Amino acid sequence: MDQIEKGKLREVPEPREEPIPEFWIDLIQDKIGPHGTLVVWSQLDRVSWKSSKALLDNAEFLVGRMYRYFIHDGKATIRLAAFEANGSDVQNYIDRHVRANDPLYLMKGTSAPEPFDQEPAFDLVGEETVAVNYQGKDHTVTLRYSVAKPVVRQPPHGGSSAIGRHAVKNQGVSVVRARRELELNTSFDNRYDPRERWWGVEVLFEPELDDVFGVTNNKQAATALMQMDLDEDAKLEGLTPGEYRERLEEANDPRLAMYEISTKIRNMLNRTLRPQIQRMREGARKGGDQTPPPGSAEEIATRATRRLRQVYGDKGQSDQGEKLPQDQREQELERALIAEGVPEQQAKEIAVAYVRSNIKFLFQEAEIPGPAIFDVKSKAGTIMININTRHPAREHLFELLRQENADTETPALKALKLLLSAWARLEDEAGDQRRQQLEDTRQDWGRLARDFLQAANE
Question: What DSSP assignment string belongs to 217-236?
Fold first, then answer.
């Protein structure tokens, strides 16, 4: 490079065969084959790391992620070693093999910090495929999704811990070609939100789709994959989404596959992964005694319901559940809370507190299919009111509900929760036919509220 820059060479000279110098042969542990290439870097003027250890640590992080499947499956080993010359003697002071670095945190035996080097830090949420027809042949693109386990976000772990610092460096969508990672695509994540480190998305495809993904000549990036919206692009072209899609189909445009992949990733992030992470964050706020205090909305609604039952009898579907044995009620309620994304230990504490104090109304947050603002469920004598994390009203409701951590509720918060409790009890007391009508009404109201709030945001 120096000779080219100084004008002494106009092109890279033809390679010629040479025996490996004895100096390098002494440092290489693996069997040396009859042919190959030894690359020697020298005069490294663009390396920011000042020590061999820092250089190798960062190399392991990147190389371990790129070749994680080959390393994890035992099909490749990569050795990192550092040596120090002491006169004529060369001493080896760093010598180790690269460990896999899995940005989905589903593999075992990785470079993640303990204990997550030997056990997955995330759970697999789902896997789906996209069929791509290109040049008359059918191909498959695989999408995999993961999200952090609740324990990873609880003390002593969390964002500022070793696993949190490790995860933030793996933030983004991992694009994998023929089982080797090309890049971490950052067009789908919100860089400003520290919670984005807690999900993982992986896109896997084969070399036959290089042109579809816009793979660069050096096989380092997939330039065609980015967050895309067909409806918005159609609007820019002055077309309806249907017209725009027809135009792409007529031209056999490979962007159709990118639109589908982008939509699937965006939907999974917005409808599943981010709401699940949000639920974990809310759950982590609560600690200590989980029993709602006297004078809380839950306690008032329970007291009022009990008084009405003395007059009108046990009219609610949930009332029969209160007659179950205490242990059974606690176990059923605990399982229901875990299914909604509440950490196991906290779910157990809540179940025990609510059953033993006979509090009938329990507020949580959950991802709910459809447009409803909230959902109502009955489990083991407890009426669970789940706020829909997918509804645009969620933020406004949660700004109030987050104040539950305060010693006392504000009047507005208490009134809101009592209103929702009253509706929940109305559904609980209704017969099957009437209950279905009320559920339909709740869905219709949620749909209108969604449209109104979206119009307000515009």
Answer: TTS--BTT-S---HHHHHHH
Longest dimension (CA), the chain: 102
Same domain, yes or no: 293 and 149 = no
Identify whether the C-beta of residue 297 lies closer than 8 Å to the C-beta of residue 404: no
Among the listed residues 140, 262, 161, the one whose alpha carbon sits nearest the alpha carbon of residue 209: 140
In this model, does residue 213 exceed pLDDT 50?
yes
Instruction: Say if residue 34 is preceded by a cis peptide, omega within 30 of 0.
Output: no
294 bridge partner residues? none
Residue 218's alpha-carbon distances to 44, 210, 222, 257, in angstroms, are 21, 12, 11, 23
CA pair distance 318, 435, nearest whole angstrom? 13
Number of domains in the chain: 3
| Residue at 78: amino acid letter | I
Q: For residue 134, what are the β-bridge partners?
A: 137
Residue 46: phi, psi to the nearest 5? Answer: -125, 30
pTM of the complete model: 0.63
Q: How far apart are CA 77 and CA 319, in angstroms?
A: 62
**Boundary residue ending a domain (247, 281, 315):** 281
Going by C-alpha positions, the residue among 83, 78, 56 that lies closest to residue 66 is: 78
Per the CB < 8 A criterion, the answer to whether 159 and 148 are in contact is no
What is the per-residue pLDDT for 108? Answer: 95
**Which amino acid, 351?**
A
Question: Please, which pLDDT band fits residue 283 given cuts at 50, 70 and 90?
Answer: very low
User: In this predicted structure, what is the pLDDT of residue 289?
Assistant: 65
Reported as a pLDDT band with limits 50, 70 and 90, residue 395 is: low
User: Is residue 140 very low, low, confident or very high in pLDDT (cuts 50, 70, 90)?
Assistant: very high
Are both 432 and 365 inside the same structural domain? yes
Which of 362-372 are b and which e, b meaning 16 or more Cβ less than 10 Å from the residue's Cβ?
bbbbbbbeebb
Alpha-carbon separation of residue 280 from 76, 159, 274, 342 (angstroms) = 37, 13, 10, 7
Indicate whether 187 and 42 sit together in one domain.
Answer: no
**Phi, psi values for residue 148, rounded to 5°:** -60, 140
Range of the domain at 295: 287-457
Crossing angle for the helix pair 411-429 and 432-457, nearest 10 degrees?
Answer: 140
Strand blocks (E) in 218-281 = none
How many other CB atoms sit within 10 Å of the CB of residue 20? Answer: 12
Tokens at 13, concatenated: 């000279």
